[in-house]
Design brief:
CATH architecture of the largest domain: Beta Barrel
Shape: elongated
CATH topology of the largest domain: Thrombin, subunit H
Number of helices: 4
CATH class of the largest domain: Mainly Beta
Largest sheet: 6 strands, antiparallel, barrel
Strand content: 25-35%
Distance between the termini: 139 Å
Helix content: 25-40%
Strand order of the largest sheet: 1-2-5-4-3-12
Number of strands: 12
CATH superfamily of the largest domain: Rod shape-determining protein MreC, domain 1
Order of helices and strands: HHHEEEEEEEEEEEEH
Radius of gyration: 38 Å
Number of domains: 2
Length: 269
């Protein structure tokens, strides 16, 4: 009797399994496998979410790694700029002792007008000191505190500098244009100048020593009235200043203001 009952249980289980298989086959046939696929997709997605969802600790660690990578990249860039600046100052005459300074303040409202550097009177900087960077003249110290200085850039529209063409000696006044270019107004109506000529500060400049490189002639307008003009492409990277060198102010020379008004340069005695 026990054997017979055990046999019926086995047959019942087999019949149940067959029914499940046949039912599943019918369901697949009727739905063209959509129900089974949906069931499988749901299960897979749940496992995938469980496996790939980062924990709070993982997210914090990833954020920290990203922060450190950004800091490393910034330090590498600063290191490259500092090496370039040191190389520039080492090429300067031995008699010059520049004060290395870093630009620490610059407003979007006066980007082309001025910058603030991290050295002031405690480092020996005075009003009127000359500011240079890789490429040449950048500006002049306009005001000083104990630990900072404000630099008027040569790109400021109120900036005016006595300059000359290195190749021919033709002279004029360079004015800022709030961009990487400046405008040179010549004293002569038809100056001896051509595109590509290098310009430097002139011996008539009161604010700057002579011979400081500034830029090169980009274009000419010899028909401009009342004086011929040229657009000057500036050498120093004024749009992206980082490190600068500050030099003592010069003790000489004829006023640029009088030169600009008279348009007739005459060397002072």
């Amino acid at each position: 009797m026990f054997t017979a009952r055990h046999g019926w249980e086995r047959r019942g289980l087999q019949i149940g399994l067959i029914a499940v298989v046949l039912g599943s086959a019918w369901l697949v046939r009727e739905t063209q496998g959509a129900a089974l696929l949906e069931f499988y997709t749901g299960i897979s997605n749940r496992f995938q979410i469980v496996q790939t969802k980062p924990s709070t600790v993982d997210r914090l660690q990833n954020a920290k790694v990203s922060e450190l990578q950004a800091e490393i990249t910034d330090l590498q860039n600063q290191n490259q700029k500092l090496k370039k600046f040191i190389s520039y100052t080492e090429k300067q005459p031995a008699t010059s002792k520049p004060i290395p300074s870093r630009v620490v303040g610059r407003s979007a409202d006066n980007w082309w007008q001025q910058v603030t550097i991290n050295r002031g009177s405690s480092a020996g900087i005075e009003k009127g000191a000359i500011v240079k960077a890789d490429g040449g003249l950048v500006g002049i110290v306009e005001s000083v505190t104990s630990n900072t200085s404000r630099v008027l850039l040569i790109t400021d529209m109120k900036s005016s500098i006595g300059v000359n063409i290195s190749r021919t000696g033709a002279k004029g006044i360079l004015r800022g244009n709030s961009s990487t270019e400046a405008v040179l107004e010549f004293y002569e109506k038809v100056p001896n100048v051509k595109v590509g000529d290098v310009i430097t500060t002139s011996t008539y400049s009161q604010k700057f020593p002579s011979g400081l490189p500034i830029g090169k002639v980009k274009s000419l307008d010899l028909q401009k009235l009342p004086a011929s003009i040229a657009k000057i492409e500036l050498f120093p990277p004024i749009s992206s200043l980082d490190w600068v060198a500050v030099y003592p102010k010069p003790e000489k020379q004829l006023s640029e203001k009088s030169l600009s008004s008279n348009k007739q340069p005459q060397k002072s005695n």
